[in-house]
């Protein structure tokens, strides 16, 4: 096995930064939704997309099964232009615009629901059969050294990193969660199916911890990103129930500048009451974030909408992790 970063061969995975510095001020309201090219491609977890004229938008509904007070049953629509799709290497997307299956391989590309991620032939063995906590570390050198591939969950304190991990492994309390920001304080390794790791990290931004302690978290977390050779991709969590935060854009920018592969995971998509959340629906916040991120990235990073309450996006993230992992293992 060659322990190299997945994206080295593909600009789609590299997400190169434009040579720009982050603006100190941004105003999402200056970026109306009409700036998006109206061209939709979506799929559910059905084997192929329905036949569509690529110029006519496809409506996709995302139903919630939660009875949370903050959840409503409105079906959101997000539109993604074809040039904003995340296309894994060796993936032919011609079948996205037709129902035809590649006759040689019997395989046909599709887009994961609530995301811009095209599913490739590498997306196998996505189920979690077992998951176990392995260790907590506060330095990269102290992390497990068995060479297994891993995915790290990072994001602002309280964004839902530990909750997402529990959702992915279908366990309520494998990772500890709290309403109080600052719960996770170490690099926590969880081994999945004895073959790969999910890594829960401390949050950045506001946390119930002294400044010096938070600086220390930031230092060992960033050192881990820069040094960890088995890190396949970072999953940067963004709260979709509130408008974009500058600190999240700065974090995405830092990851990009350091060429660290990244997937954006929008959390708390079940929180849909406009009044409670600054007047925007999660899908609107997601779209604004896409627009803002375009300032810093030449290619669209992969992104996906999730909820640890309704488990929205759980199967899709596992499929995406499977394709990143299997590609990494073969290259
Ligand atoms: N409605 C809703 N609440 C969520 C979701 N994910 C997490 N939460 C809540 O958000 C709070 C923080 O969740 P955690 O998973 O502990 O967040 P974290 O990012 O690990 O936080 P730190 O470890 O402190 O950095 C908890 O009260 C969770 O129940 C979600 O998808 N929807
Ligand atoms: Mg946590």
UniProtKB/TrEMBL annotation:
Q: Where is this region: Disordered?
A: 49-72
Q: Give the organism the record lists.
A: Beta vulgaris subsp. vulgaris (Beet)
Which cofactors does it use? Mg(2+)
Write down what this protein is called. Answer: EngB-type G domain-containing protein
| SUPFAM superfamilies the UniProt entry points to | P-loop containing nucleoside triphosphate hydrolases
Give GO cellular component annotations, separated by semicolons: chloroplast; mitochondrion
Q: Which GO terms describe its biological process?
A: cell division
Q: Which NCBIfam families match?
A: GTPase_YsxC
Q: Start and end of every EngB-type G domain? A: 147-327
User: What are the UniProt keywords, alphabetically?
Assistant: Cell cycle, Cell division, GTP-binding, Magnesium, Metal-binding, Nucleotide-binding, Septation
């Amino acid at each position: 096995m060659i322990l190299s970063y997945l994206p080295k061969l593909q600009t789609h995975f590299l997400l190169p930064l434009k040579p720009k510095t982050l603006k100190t001020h941004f105003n999402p309201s200056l970026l109306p939704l009409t700036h998006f090219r109206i061209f939709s491609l979506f799929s559910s977890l059905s084997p192929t997309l329905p036949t569509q004229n690529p110029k006519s938008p496809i409506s996709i509904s995302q139903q919630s099964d939660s009875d949370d007070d903050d959840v409503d049953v409105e079906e959101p629509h997000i539109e993604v232009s074809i040039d904003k799709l995340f296309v894994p290497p060796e993936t032919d997307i011609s079948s996205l615009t037709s129902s035809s299956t590649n006759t040689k391989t019997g395989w046909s590309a599709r887009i994961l629901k609530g995301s811009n991620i095209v599913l490739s032939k590498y997306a196998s063995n996505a189920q979690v059969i077992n998951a176990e906590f392995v260790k907590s570390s506060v330095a990269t050198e102290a992390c497990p050294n068995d060479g297994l591939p891993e995915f790290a969950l990072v994001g602002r304190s309280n964004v839902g990193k530990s909750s997402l991990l529990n959702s992915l492994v279908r366990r309520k309390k494998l990772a500890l969660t709290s309403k109080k920001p600052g719960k996770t304080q170490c690099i926590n390794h969880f081994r999945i199916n004895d073959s790969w790791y999910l890594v829960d990290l401390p949050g950045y931004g506001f946390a119930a911890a002294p400044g010096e302690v938070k600086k220390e978290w930031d230092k060992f977390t960033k050192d881990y990103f820069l040094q960890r050779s088995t890190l396949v991709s970072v999953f940067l969590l963004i709260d979709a129930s509130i408008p974009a935060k500058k600190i999240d854009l700065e974090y995405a920018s830092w990851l990009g500048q350091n060429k660290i592969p990244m997937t954006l995971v929008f959390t708390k998509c079940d929180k849909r009451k406009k009044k409670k959340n600054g007047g925007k629906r999660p899908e609107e916040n997601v779209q604004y974030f896409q627009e803002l991120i375009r300032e810093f990235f030449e290619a669209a990073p992969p992104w996906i909408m999730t909820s640890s309450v309704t488990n929205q996006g759980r199967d899709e993230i596992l499929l995406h992790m499977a394709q990143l992992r299997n590609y990494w293992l073969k290259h």
